[in-house]
Specification:
Blueprint (H helix, E strand, L loop, with lengths): L1 H17 L8 E7 L3 E3 L4 E9 L5 E4 L9 E10 L13 E4 L10 E4 L4 E11 L14 E12 L3 H8 L6 E4 L3 E6 L5 E9 L9 E6 L4 E6 L5 E7 L2 E8 L9 E7 L5 E8 L13 E8 L10 E7 L4 E7 L5 E6 L2 E8 L6 E7 L6 E6 L6
Parallel strand pairs: 2-11, 12-18, 19-25
Antiparallel strand pairs: 1-3, 3-8, 4-7, 5-9, 6-8, 9-10, 9-11, 12-15, 13-14, 13-16, 16-17, 19-22, 20-21, 20-23, 23-24
């Protein structure tokens, strides 16, 4: 905690000097990196420290994604410094945040005033290039990295009006850190194809490469022929994972592969087999924000919620406890959920929450008729 406080002090002082931070924006963003020197094609491993400097609690989306249309997204700014001036660059440096390897697990997080929330992120970084048509030599060396964190919801105003909460929307820019980007030195490679059960190529598969410690190394989309490849890999053990990025059910398949001096190039096929779902963790959930009030509209605390969803083969049961302001966020499967309120000294009260399909979040206000205090 002392280290985090020191980091915040340094970042806020630097921000004040630069005049980059908005005095009216309650959310502040500080980034830190795991390693200052990175050898291509390895990614940068970041920690996003989000701090609520405002007087009211903020609700934040758990995961920052590269191209989210509903919820949060994060965009990295990555540019060379030093000898490689902007006039020498014909192709800017490229960067993107990796997506979830498995089925995404989005949720809402409540950040009280004066508190912070941390989130890990893995960032692909590609060097700028010199020369004509963007095919010149890569620019290795020192780079500046910062992150822009955004959030937007199509129904945010309705939810905030209904529940009287602050669902954070907007844009905040982090501090800047410096990295040393070094050229690749390894010669191993992995290539393969993603196929459906009939043997047809899948061009929409998200393919992720992880090392033997289950840490992300690289991530690509299969091309029109279902092919993918990873190059400049050190020898060792790897996991290759594929999933359909837009699926609402878990579609992950994975294979293990070892690269060695005697076998520097590995090849494999990933076949996306259909599966029968019997457990709720294999279905995509959606963040749902509840507020529990009494008959006079006042927030009710000391209350727990239990939501039940079933389609027959699958039964989902989710529980949560409300905060002092009567709010609680649950991750529910879209569709009809039966919600039970449990308060000390009160009988159970049953409600219904019809969670809409699609991205973003839903919100419901539940009224407790029990007069217990």
């Amino acid at each position: 905690m002392r280290l985090l406080a020191l980091l915040w002090t340094i970042a806020l002082v630097a921000s004040a000097i630069a005049g980059a931070a908005s005095e009216t924006e309650p959310l502040k963003l500080l980034i830190s990196v795991e390693q200052q020197a990175i050898t291509a094609p390895y990614p940068a491993r970041l920690t996003l420290h989000l701090y609520n400097a405002g007087p009211q609690p903020l609700w934040l989306y758990r995961r920052a994604r590269g191209q989210a249309t509903e919820g949060s997204s994060a965009e990295a700014r990555f540019e060379p410094i030093g000898a490689a001036g902007p006039t020498e660059i014909t192709t800017p440096a490229q960067s993107k945040l990796f997506e979830s390897v498995g089925l995404p697990r989005p949720r809402l997080v409540r950040v009280a005033s004066g508190e912070d929330y941390t989130e890990k992120a893995t960032l692909e970084i590609n060097p700028a290039r010199r020369g004509a048509n963007g095919k010149g030599t890569p620019v290795w060396g020192r780079y500046r990295l910062s992150v822009i964190y955004r959030a937007k919801y199509s129904n945010a105003n309705e939810i905030q009006k209904l529940l009287d909460v602050i669902l954070w929307q907007g844009e905040v820019t982090s501090n800047t850190v410096e990295l040393e980007l070094q050229p690749p030195s390894a010669e191993g490679s992995i290539a393969g194809t993603v196929l459906d059960v009939q043997g047809r190529a899948l061009s929409d598969a998200l393919v992720t490469l992880s090392d033997q410690e289950d840490r992300l190394v690289n991530q690509v989309l299969a091309n029109l022929e279902g092919r993918f490849s990873f190059a400049h890999l050190p020898f060792g053990d790897y996991w290759v994972t594929a999933r359909r990025p837009e699926a609402t059910e878990d579609t992950v398949v994975f294979r293990h592969l070892r690269l060695a001096p005697t076998e520097p190039a590995g090849t494999l096929e990933l076949i996306m087999l259909p599966r029968e779902i019997y457990e709720p963790q294999y279905l995509l959930h959606k963040p749902v924000l509840f507020r529990v009030v009494d008959g006079a509209g006042r927030p009710v605390d000391r209350t727990s919620l239990e939501a039940v969803w079933s389609n027959g083969p699958v039964l989902d049961n989710v529980k949560g406890k409300v905060f002092e302001d009567g709010t609680v966020a649950l991750e529910l499967i879209p569709g009809r959920n039966f919600v039970t309120l449990k308060r000390p000294g009160c009988p159970k009260e049953d409600h219904r929450a019809d969670v809409a399909p699609g991205g973003g979040i839903d919100g419901f206000k539940l009224t407790s008729e029990c007069a217990a205090r």
